[in-house]
Specification:
Blueprint: H1 2-14, H2 38-47, H3 69-73, E1 78-82, H4 88-96, E2 101-105, H5 109-122, E3 127-130, H6 134-139, E4 146-152, H7 170-179, E5 180-190, H8 193-202, E6 208-210, H9 216-219, H10 229-236, E7 242-248
Parallel strand pairs: 1-2, 1-4, 2-3, 4-5
Antiparallel strand pairs: 5-7, 6-7
């Protein structure tokens, strides 16, 4: 039943939907990998619904009504991580900053299952998890409601013809900027030099300023950083991480 539900969701993400008001969006990433372990299937069945941020997908929120973040997190400031991978950073931030509410968005269900296991182990309670395209989440976030955003080791789409699929395009950055409060921080980590180039070109166009004043500001990770599996792989393969910090103007 679980696999069928996410297979159906995958088809919806990659095909035309005809629901009035539903946005047409191509989705190029994968939503399912190798078979889940029985424990991961259990996490998805028992925990995912409890951690839902609410009505995000158009099937359950056809009028695209905004989420009530105050009710969700009791008035705490709210952060969002776009594409949390295996969830190491997301859980680390939740544990380090219990006075924050954090939403994680990730369409890859294997990563979602990994995150749910980490949430159980850490016992954090200030997280919400959306297993889907972050653009759907942006649709239902109130204007200027998010205090910080993270984009960490996103899919690099290395071929030039695929660069338009990267997150750092205006299709993604403009709705993100709309949801962020003035002065909110946007962190980007990547080990791909051309992704750095595109990020530095495109993010300022969406109303952000790069905060680096010298090389140390992009060579050294943030003070509350935890190295993820993607970063460890990059380091093993000799690639250099870049840590870019922007502020919404």
């Amino acid at each position: 039943m679980l696999r069928a539900r996410f297979a159906a969701k995958s088809r919806r993400m990659t095909s035309s939907n005809k629901h009035p008001g539903a946005p047409w969006r191509n989705f190029y990433g994968r939503v399912k990998g190798k078979s889940l372990r029985p424990s991961q299937e259990t996490y998805l069945e028992e925990d995912l619904a409890k951690l839902s941020p609410g009505a995000v997908d158009w099937e359950v929120n056809p009028e695209r009504e905004n989420l009530d973040l105050r009710a969700m997190f009791g008035g705490k400031p709210v952060w969002i991580e776009v594409g949390f991978g295996g969830g190491e950073h997301l859980v680390h931030q939740a544990a380090t900053h219990p006075d924050m509410g954090i939403i994680g968005c990730e369409p890859y269900i294997n990563g979602v299952a990994m995150l749910l296991g980490k949430i159980r182990a850490a016992g954090v309670e200030n997280l919400r998890v959306y297993p889907g395209d972050a653009r759907n989440m942006f649709d239902v976030l109130p204007d200027e409601s998010i205090d910080k955003a993270f984009l960490l080791y996103p899919d690099p789409w290395p071929k030039k013809r695929h660069h338009r699929r990267r997150f750092v395009t205006q299709e993604h950055l403009e709705p993100l900027a709309r949801a962020l409060k003035p002065g909110a921080e946007f962190r980007v980590a990547t080990d791909i030099p051309d992704y750095v180039r595109q990020t530095l070109e495109e993010v300022p166009k969406a109303g952000f300023e790069w905060l680096a004043e010298g090389p140390a500001d992009w060579r050294a990770p943030w003070g509350d950083w935890i190295s993820t599996r993607y970063e460890q792989k990059a380091l093993r393969e000799g690639r250099t991480p870049h840590y870019l910090t922007f502020r919404k103007r």
